[in-house]
Amino acid sequence: MLMNNRILVVEDDLAIGNLIKMTLSMQQYEYAIALDGKTALQKVLSMQPDVIILDLGLPDMDGVDVIYKIRSWSQTPIIVVSARGEERDKINALDAGADDYVTKPFSVDELLARIRVAFRRLASDRQSDKEQPVFVNGDLRIDYLANTVFVHDGEVHLTPIEYKLLVVLSKHVGKVLTHNYLLKEVWQHVSQSDVPSLRVFMATLRKKIEENPANPKYIQTHVRVGYRMLRHEDE
Amino acid sequence: MEDRRPSPEAILAKIKQQEKGAGAGKLKIFLGYAAGVGKTYAMLDAAHEAKKLGVDVVIGYVEPHARPETTALLEGLEMIPTKKITYKGKIFEEFDIDAVLERQPGLVVIDELAHSNMPPMRHLKRFGDVEELLAKGIHIYTTVNIQHIESLHDLVEEITGVKVREHIPDYLIDNAAQIKLVDIEPEDLIQRLKEGKIYRAAQVEKAMEHFFRKPNLVALREIALRRTADTVYHKQSLENDSLTHNAQVEDHLLVGISSSPTNAKVIRTAARLSQALHGKFTALYVQKAGINNGSDANSERLQQHIKLTEQLGGNVVTVQEEDVAAALANYARMSGVTKLVIGRTATKAHWWRPNVKIVDRLNEFVPNLGLYIVPDQENEPMRFQGMEMQLKFDWIDLLKMAIIFGVASIIGVLFFTVGVSEANIVTIYILGVLVLAMWSTGWVVSVISSLVAVLIFNFLFTEPRFSFEAYHWDYPMTFLIMFISGLITSSLTRKVKKQAISAVRKSYRTEVLLETNRKLQHAKSLEEIITEGMTQIVKLVEKPAVFFDMADQLIMKKEYFRTNVMTDAENKAMEALFDNVNERGVATWGASNMQAAGVSTDTFPEANAYYVPVVSGGNVEGIVGIALTKEAPLPSFERHILDAIINEFSFALDKWYLQKSNEEVAREAELEQMRANFLRSISHDLRTPLTSISGNADILLSSGEQIDETQKVQLYRDMNNNAKWLVQMVENLLAVSRLDGGELSIEMQPELVEDIMQEALLHVMHNGNKHRIHCRVEPELLFAVMDARLIIQVIINIVNNALTYTPTGSEIILSAQEVGDHVRICITDNGLGISDTIKAWLFEPFMTDKIYRSDSRRGLGLGLSLCQAIVKVHGSELTVADNVPTGAIFSFMLEKGVVNVNE
């Protein structure tokens, strides 16, 4: 896990910057701080970070634009920091290519958890650089070739839509996918009125693959934003 | 035809008001006493002067066949092209008002104020165009000849013998900002005429013989000079109120209004007299009970006379009285009238009353009053005309007569054979005459029936029977008495009948008005007011009508009100009519100029409906359009009620808007109060945790070494808890601001209830206490319509409260159930419960300090009152009940979300 742990923190507020710095150094992560968007972009090039923590409210440019710029050449996981209540900003950031978000005020534990998720995604991406025919995540196993899904080695019967949803989530494991993205991927068109349908399918899907749907292990709900599949270590 | 121009007083007030504010147009009139005095020349000259001073001058209209000197003056002035109109095969050039309105000049020059426009033009008269431009703030130069002034035109006619058809109302002259009298010696004028400068040679000869005779010109010049002098006085008195209010110098003239065709002349004379005396004049209309609804021609003429009086600046008063002389005398005495103007033959003598002239009777009543008698010989033939109308004999009446007298004769013969006396048989015939009078119309029938009754009686019952001879000497006496009593009986009956009809119509009018009033009073909403008002109008006029909802002088909405008198197809056709662009144009004009337009007005008389603006609080809220045709305009009787209804309409709207704005103010005040309360309780609630955090940090910074580890942990934990509490506080504040932002900031969507509960539980403050929290949603996949963030906030607040106020280890259950087409959300705990006294004000925000309890440092009030507000936005109410055996249940309802699963 501790192979390459460079983190770039883009944060203009000194107090929060300090907090994040302290947290990261205690976990022995290697880090750098950028106070504005331009420095951030330079540092992404020079430092080649493994994870980027990006505050959306920057003094010189729009955080979403920073994401677009980074995504034009790099797939480095980006965790966005935003104020709660501005779902629109989060969704824009996610649609622009961000992987995850934390909401201010966030706890140190929360931030560290997100960073771990990001590294795990990085690790699994490296593993499955070549398209794997089988996706394994904890007790969940998806055979892309046979279109079958297993939990605890027992086959689970999914409807075509449920299966498609699961596949899309599994292909982006660790990343928060917005409602719009999922609708586009599964239904091929985006209409806000389809969001409730999406919720229904997501709920039925969970009932089938989660042991305790009230406390989901694989699929996480982000109210008003979207869903994410969590990566579990092989047990 | 009557127009709905505002009264002169209203116009005066308007002009006065406009003169104070910028943007009101000023009118300058170049007044001449005859053609050729050089008005147009003087006007164009003045226009050049104005242009030199930097005014944006355009020529709106100048007579095309002007004299060369005048035409030369057109050089260097911008001309607005005239509108070419083809009417009955001829081409006419008219002043193009719309082109001018679009051009928006500072000053327009328009020749010939008294001109009558050709039909497609919106105003009947050119002065209508002028008034509209003035109201839009455009200054105007115009010309007019003295003979066109309403109060003077018959005088001019008398002097010159030339009939003048085009009139302008006097108030235009009196209220003009400037009057420029263009004067020239009559000799010089005649010289000009001879030189061919006024008319072409062929016409000169004729003109010299008629109009342009020197005595004529001298008289006209005198009238023009005098009228101008009166205007000067009028202006001065407007500026100096004391002049008009000096009762001693002011003369008050009284004139009687009637439907007599010569009455107009009497009214004009009175108006001139009052102008000359600088007094005011009142026209009294004496309404007699029976004659109220005379012929249409008469009532139309009466309306014209009332309009004339108003145009001439007089005040119209209506009284109900049988005796005209007594009414005039009474009014004169009560209102301080100094002079009375009457026509020579103002009353007709009744056959039962000796021929007493009204003059003599007035002399008797008010011997001190000055009487001016105006000759009006033309009265005589008109009376015959009136009789002619009643002479019309209906053949149906003859049939009725045959039936009635047939029955009477049968009864008579029956009586005769039985031996009843002749006197009783006579009574039967008189009874027949009476019945006939009730059953038929016209006094001719009465006379004939009385005669026929006598003849039949003579033929059937007098000796010798079955001949028209009578032997007995006293029969002629019997016949005569029989005839006279028949005549009197029938005339009295007819009069009673007439009065009954007029009473019925009057009571109908009152009834409609009262009903309108009552219905409008009870109307709760704007829509109801409009529907009720319009329904009454349709009921009254028996024509379909439309209501155009206006905002910023644009038609927002059309609402059509059909009439049951017409078939569905006809109603449909009429409704389509109101979608016509032209009709809408007329309605819009009425709205932007706040005047009635369309049929029976002077503006767009060619339209297919009559449009009246409904004004409330100085704004046109709507336009009422009534489908009418030029051939069948509204009878004057109904027009009055219509006016009254539209008045009621305006009042109702005023009332409604007032009420609405009051409610708005009250709501605003309540919101303001709520904000103030929130601020007060928040600042209190913030201070407590902040004190704890900063205090703890202080201790740790200054004396960290002296504190042992367990104490330190306690301080850290307190800081952490207080900070978390502040975070929730900020969330609540955000929710408050969203509620404050109104519907726009609230996003209602069907949400999966389970997701919402899970999300809420992620944010509750566990604070390390050992509560057990469960979720129960039945059935699965339950959707509810909500703003997710606000409802999550509600759940967080209630659960946080439960965590704070129930003992450690208590159980908290979040549950959702389907109840019909709603979802009930419950948050149940098994703690100690809430006492009834606390329940009473649980959802109240902190109102005063007296409710504040020192033990509830976490501001319970704000959280729950906010929850209540959020739940109310969702159309429900947050309630609290006791759990069994102990604890509390908070619950609220949400609308169930219907999700059509889209595969």
Automatic annotation (TrEMBL), chain B:
Where do transmembrane segments lie in this chain? 398-416, 428-461, 473-492
Which SUPFAM superfamilies does UniProt cross-reference here?
A: ATPase domain of HSP90 chaperone/DNA topoisomerase II/histidine kinase, Homodimeric domain of signal transducing histidine kinase
Q: Keyword set for this entry?
A: ATP-binding, Kinase, Membrane, Nucleotide-binding, Phosphoprotein, Transferase, Transmembrane, Transmembrane helix, Two-component regulatory system
> Do you know which PROSITE patterns this protein is assigned to?
HIS_KIN
Q: Which Pfam families match?
A: DUF4118, HATPase_c, HisKA, KdpD
Localization per record = Membrane
Report which reactions are catalysed by this protein: ATP + protein L-histidine = ADP + protein N-phospho-L-histidine
Signal peptide from the UniProt entry: none
- What is the first-listed, main subcellular location in coarse terms? membrane
Q: What is its EC number?
A: 2.7.13.3
| Gene3D superfamilies to which the protein is assigned, alphabetical | 1.10.287.130, 3.30.450.40, Backbone structure of the membrane domain of e. Coli histidine kinase receptor kdpd (1.20.120.620), Histidine kinase-like ATPase, C-terminal domain (3.30.565.10), HUPs (3.40.50.620), P-loop containing nucleotide triphosphate hydrolases (3.40.50.300)
* Domain Histidine kinase stretches: 681-898
**Coiled-coil region list:** none
Q: Which GO terms describe its molecular function?
A: ATP binding; phosphorelay sensor kinase activity
Cellular-component GO terms for this entry: cytoplasm; plasma membrane
Membrane topology per record: Multi-pass membrane protein
Q: What name does UniProt use for this protein?
A: histidine kinase
